[in-house]
Design a protein that fits this description.
Elements: H1 5-16, E1 23-25, H2 33-40, E2 47-55, E3 60-66, H3 73-80, E4 84-86, H4 89-96, E5 113-117, E6 126-129, E7 135-139, H5 141-148, E8 151-153
Amino acid sequence: MSLEPSARKVQDALAAAGFPNEVVELPDSTRTAAEAARAVGCEVGQIVKSLVFRAASGRAVLVVASGANRVDEAKVAAELGEAIGRADAAFVREETGFAIGGVPPIGHAKKLATLVDEALLGFETIWAAAGHPHAVFRLTPRELVAMTRGTVARVAA
């Protein structure tokens, strides 16, 4: 299967980590949670939003949240034990290797501290970005926690 290079990078990372999930490229944009839900035919809550923050220490923090939720930065900071702020596009690309709008939960340039929105655990299947604004992959909440090695937390506002 022919994939865009950034989507291929995610497919290769999934395979290298032992996950059988398949990246699919869609004709419609999946850049936002609403667009992704329409493109795959699911609820917005089933879309995994990958948000990168910059912690006060300078490290990158990935929050994978339900597309239906707004992330409460104070809750994330409390969970991490340090203040956080939004990361700019250059920081996101440097830390993850991907552009905003296609950041996947796996295959990053650097190891990221990761928090997983507990709301995602309420779904049987979920969909995550796969490195490109038209690429996604289907997975289970259990797979998400395993592939990110993330900490499940209450991050929604």
